[in-house]
């Protein structure tokens, strides 16, 4: 297991049990026992489907999702934090077309540049130069001071990466979740860079603000508890990183299930769930706890004005528990003329759950941006969202489920 897959965040809050009556205790125990049984059944079922999907595709985590960049380097942030950057040079018959934009990918919270494995392949083969980087405290990038873990600093980090790796030429910026917020911070602090060089932007499963009301699919009361106690609990657990790592490794199947539940809206191969879990494992508790409070305070609505008139894609999943669809609706409201794609049966980690649809939409964005040539002076009115269904994935999940039923009968 590599360094990135050796650590895991543990987000659960810590509670205290006070005085309870015998009746309440008994009912609680009965309820927990029933819930545990249901969870165990679902874990077993989902695991079988996930393994069957891998069998159908012949995929494994280590062989299928590993990619060697053409070049990798370290860019020093303004405060000296080393940022890991990878570059894929353009390939395919269109690689020598002049003035093609470079695509820069920014990943989300507790992920890394590895989440873009399908997109980097599709875009470089289509003739585009691709730049991927690990945000501070994530993946192979270094860690900073605790007070440096906030969205504004991430915008400054992205500016450094662009200045060092893509100092000239047109740009397409793609950001997922926290990476989308990074794009907003860049637009707020470096508006000239965006207006002069960015010809297209994609905001994938992200938000301009209002995250303090998100329930994470847990219900209003439990969601509020996560917001209130999550950062403190994560901060305490940072002192016990080794113990947390050991406990989680011992329950890897359970953690794959938890990650699957929070990240995806449809069945995914086990190798995808494991890849996602491994990326989350790589993020240290001190980083997680330091970023957490900033999400509730995040408000970058005014930053989107910088992106008006630029070809823009807003894409989200219909079943996203972390940045629900209303957050993408708000981005589209603030960016008239943005292409708005809603993927049915999709959760938060869209790039791994529905890679073909995202690849298709990114290539369409690139095509529009190249045709436009110059930023639009009069952006069109807002359009209604286009809802997309991944029929092939639905069919594959049904086939996997049917195979399991035949095996058990």
From TrEMBL:
Could you name the domain of life of the organism this protein comes from? Bacteria
Keywords in alphabetical order: Hydrolase
Q: Which residues cross the membrane?
A: none
User: InterPro entries in the record, alphabetically?
Assistant: AB_hydrolase_1 (IPR000073), AB_hydrolase_fold (IPR029058), Carboxylesterase_BioH (IPR050228)
Q: Which Pfam families match?
A: Abhydrolase_1 (PF00561)
Q: Taking every annotated instance into account, which residue ranges of this chain make up the domain AB hydrolase-1?
A: 101-355
List the GO molecular function terms: hydrolase activity
Tell me which Gene3D superfamilies the record gives.
alpha/beta hydrolase
Q: What is this protein called?
A: Putative hydrolase
Q: Which organism is it from?
A: Austwickia chelonae NBRC 105200
């Amino acid at each position: 297991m590599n360094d990135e897959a050796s650590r895991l965040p543990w987000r659960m809050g810590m509670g205290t049990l006070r005085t309870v009556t015998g009746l309440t205790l008994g009912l609680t125990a009965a309820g927990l026992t029933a819930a545990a049984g249901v969870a165990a059944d679902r874990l077993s079922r989902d695991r079988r489907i996930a393994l069957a999907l891998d069998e159908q595709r012949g995929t494994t985590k280590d062989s299928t999702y590993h990619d060697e960049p053409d070049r990798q380097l370290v860019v020093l942030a303004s405060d000296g934090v080393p940022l890991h950057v990878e570059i894929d040079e353009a390939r395919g018959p269109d690689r020598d077309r002049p003035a093609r934009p470079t695509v820069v990918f920014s990943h989300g919270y507790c992920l890394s540049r590895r989440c873009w494995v399908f997109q980097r392949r599709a875009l470089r083969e289509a003739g585009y130069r691709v730049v991927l980087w690990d945000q501070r405290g994530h993946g192979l990038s270094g860690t900073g001071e605790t007070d440096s873990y906030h969205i504004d600093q991430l915008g400054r980090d992205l500016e450094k990466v662009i200045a060092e790796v893509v100092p000239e030429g047109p740009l397409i910026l793609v950001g997922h979740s926290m990476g989308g917020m990074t794009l907003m911070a860049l637009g707020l602090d470096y508006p000239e860079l965006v207006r002069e060089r960015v010809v297209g932007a994609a905001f994938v499963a992200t938000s301009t603000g209002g995250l303090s009301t998100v329930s994470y699919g847990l219900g209003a009361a439990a969601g509020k508890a996560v917001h209130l106690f999550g950062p403190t609990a994560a901060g305490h657990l940072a002192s016990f990183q080794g113990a947390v790592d050991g406990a989680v490794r011992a329950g890897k199947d359970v953690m794959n299930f938890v990650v699957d539940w929070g990240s995806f809206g449809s069945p995914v191969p086990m190798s995808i769930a494991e890849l996602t879990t491994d990326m989350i494992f790589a993020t240290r508790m001190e980083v997680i706890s330091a970023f957490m409070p900033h999400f509730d305070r995040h408000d970058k609505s005014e930053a989107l004005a910088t992106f008006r008139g630029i070809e823009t894609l807003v894409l989200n999943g219909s079943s996203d528990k972390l940045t629900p669809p209303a957050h993408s609706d708000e981005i589209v409201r603030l960016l008239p003329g943005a292409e708005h794609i809603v993927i049915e049966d999709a959760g938060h980690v869209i790039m791994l759950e529905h890679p073909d649809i995202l690849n298709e939409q990114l290539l369409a964005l690139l095509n529009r941006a190249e045709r436009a040539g110059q930023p639009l002076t009069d952006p069109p009115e807002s359009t209604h969202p286009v809802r997309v269904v991944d029929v092939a994935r639905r069919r594959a999940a049904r086939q996997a489920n049917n195979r399991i039923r035949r095996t058990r009968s």
